[in-house]
Design a protein that fits this description.
CATH superfamily of the domain at 58-134: SUI1-like domain
Largest sheet: 5 strands, mixed
Helix content: 25-40%
Shape: flat
Distance between the termini: 73 Å
Oligomer: single chain
Number of helices: 4
Number of strands: 7
Strand content: 15-25%
Length: 135
């Protein structure tokens, strides 16, 4: 008795469906919003384009520093909230703060999370960079 997978492979089939290469029409169709299909040949579909957030200047950034322990397994973390701008600029600021303090951390969901309670040190660094921040 043979295995069904080997029998299928002998016939030239595969056990998993082949994925079709995506063409530009298929990709453009997925980006459409509002109307699924129109019979009007001159209809212009609206395209779903991601919003690009403009980063505010440093002196206009309303940053808030807070210390949290809840939901982190008892470990303390300093959270910086209120950054208005692109994710790349947020990650760049996070990298700068981590390097200057010699700490670990990450930038997620519009927040900068720094390991440990370092509010005063981070406040001094943010003020030196020209950010307006409050505890």
């Amino acid at each position: 008795m043979t295995d069904w997978k080997t029998a299928l492979a002998a016939l030239g089939g595969t056990d998993q469906p082949e994925s079709k290469p995506q063409d530009s029409k298929d990709i453009a169709r997925r980006k459409r919003t509002g109307v699924v299909y129109s019979t009007n040949p001159d209809y212009a579909y609206e395209q779903d384009e991601p919003d690009v957030a403009d980063t505010l200047p440093n002196h206009q950034q309303p940053l808030r520093l807070a210390m949290e322990r809840a939901g982190r397994g008892g470990k303390t973390a300093t959270i910086i909230r209120g950054f208005v701008g692109s994710d790349d600029d947020l990650k760049a600021l996070c990298k700068l703060l981590k390097q200057r303090c010699g700490l670990g951390g990450s930038a997620k969901d519009g927040e900068i999370i720094i390991q440990g309670d370092h509010r005063q040190r981070l406040l001094d660094l943010l003020k030196a960079q020209g950010y307006t921040s409050a505890r």
